[in-house]
Design brief:
about 280 residues; globular; about 0% strand; mainly alpha
Length: about 280
């Protein structure tokens, strides 16, 4: 059984940490009331739509149901923390949580396409390498997505000594959870999780004995899909594009007139996955 996460003290806010413009994170999604324990989602909506309702529905209710055999060609990557086998297990597990077209033909870009495994590995190994500085807080005030020159968000902020201690404690806890959690998935699959068929992987991820690890994996999958790409995921901006999120606009920004008046239809409202979420919420 995977042990529960140990509480981690919050990172103190110190004046020595430079103030930077944060990179874009997740657009807001509607919250739904807590459903009854053990309730299952209706069949039909894309699994991506279920992600937005994750706080209200047990993980096992949506992990099952996607049964297409994966058709993947893993891209070569330089690993910071995982072994190659551990990375393969995480890639196959996150692809059951957020499948892409290689795992389910009905889905848009998923965990494989966004390189969620790369995001998680970069995060867990942030203090493993002698990075100057470690990849914890992206810089700013803007990227080079709308201007020429360097990507300033890719110039990560130096951690002060206290913040480094706090982050090392947090990352060490996550590293231990991943090491034990991956081993548990392999054990439940009879030795190698990556060799299990999709239905078996779904059943394993929904087992109570790995629920703590599955919850952590789910959280990091969402981050890897939709966080700013400087953190190692959202490769090619596929996560933002799939939900119609325009992302950061700096340094172009907006004029005072643009701020005061409507610029038309909200690109994140009732489009694509958001429409799926709204239909799902009406059925729960």
């Amino acid at each position: 059984m995977v042990p529960a996460s140990q509480p981690v003290p919050p990172v103190p806010q110190l004046p020595s940490v430079p103030q930077v413009t944060p990179g874009p994170r997740l657009p807001q999604v509607p919250q739904v009331p807590q459903g009854p324990t053990g309730s299952r989602l209706p069949r039909g909506p894309r699994r991506r739509a279920v992600i937005a309702a994750s706080a209200a529905v047990p993980l096992g209710a949506f992990v099952a149901g996607c049964t297409s055999a994966p058709k993947r060609a893993p891209a070569a990557r330089t690993l910071r923390f995982f072994t190659s086998h551990q990375a393969a297990v995480v890639e196959d597990a996150t692809a059951r949580i957020a499948p892409g077209p290689a795992d389910d033909a009905a889905e848009g870009p998923g965990a494989r396409e966004a390189d969620v495994t790369g995001y998680i590995d970069t995060m867990l190994g942030a203090l493993q390498k002698n990075d100057p500085p470690p990849r914890v807080f992206a810089g700013g005030p803007w990227s080079n997505r709308h201007t020429s020159g360097p990507d300033l968000m890719d110039m990560f902020v130096t951690l002060d000594p206290v913040a480094r201690i706090a982050w090392r404690k947090r990352l060490t806890g996550w590293q231990q959870q991943y090491t034990k959690g991956i081993a548990a998935l392999d054990r439940l699959a009879g030795g190698d999780f990556t060799k299990a068929n999709p239905e078996t992987r779904d059943k394993i991820l929904a087992m109570p004995s790995v629920s703590t690890f599955t919850a952590l994996l789910f959280e990091h999958t969402i981050e890897g899909l939709y966080a700013a790409p400087e953190y190692g995921g959202n490769r090619g901006l596929v996560g933002w594009q799939d939900i119609g999120f325009p992302g950061d606009s700096q340094p172009r920004g907006y004029t005072s007139d643009e701020v005061e008046r409507s610029d038309g239809h909200d690109p994140v409202d009732n489009t694509g996955i958001v429409a799926d979420v709204l239909r799902l919420l009406g059925a729960v």
